[in-house]
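Customer ticket, subject: "Can you confirm the structure for GntR family transcriptional regulator?"

Message body: Hello, I'm evaluating your service for our small team and ran a test protein. I'd like someone to confirm that this is what the system normally returns, since I don't have a reference to compare against.
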Amino acid sequence: MIQRHSSQGLLADRASRSAPEAVYEDLRARILHFDLAPDRVLSRADLAAEYGVSLTPIREALQALEQDGLVRIRPQSGTVVTRIDQSELEQAHFLRVAAETEVVRRLAEDPDPALLRRARSLLSLQEVLVGDIEQMDMFSELDRSFHRTLFEAAGVEKIYHMVARHMGHLMRCQRLELPEGGKMQSIVAAHRAVVEAIAAGDCDAATAAMRSHLAGTITRLEHLRDAFPACFTETGEA
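Agent reply: Thanks for trying us out. I re-ran your input and got the following:
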């Protein structure tokens, strides 16, 4: 049976998922939470024993994680959790900005009261958690729910999932940055600016608010590299 890890308490129930999907999602979350740190060597045999599955689901899960850029499979030396790669991160950021600014522009063209109620409810829940580092996982889950809600309201939920698959490096940066003082507050404030611009039907303001919000982690990348050098590839490293 697939084991549940304490860091996974906020993730959706996977009882209906296949073994490879369940292993993939659990390993991905453990990497994003740094439960499996960069440079960690992953043994297929050990993972199969840990999850109580055969080697086939483990192999398929690791192949999917390699496509996400979160592990590197080396046939002769095993599988290693990758470090955060700045080039991959910047490309993921470009994709995300392109998608999410268009999403909020469309939503602002015809504000939906149901969307606004849902988004404001998520904001209220996030506000309760501001400053509580022990609730980082819940805060992050609400953050993802906020953005996913916007994609769903725009009728492009599949695009959300496509973008999310490319977000591993950026999500790890966000995880490193979230405990810093004021970060949670700034996220909530940015979300509120997006929602109010949509409510006002101001397409340009909604786009600008989302662009500014998504730039937050990128603008602090050098700070994060200095603070957590072991989590990042060397500049220019392939």
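A couple of notes from the result: Residues 89 and 170 are 5 Å apart (CA to CA). The chain has two domains: 18-81, 86-229. Feel free to reply with more questions.
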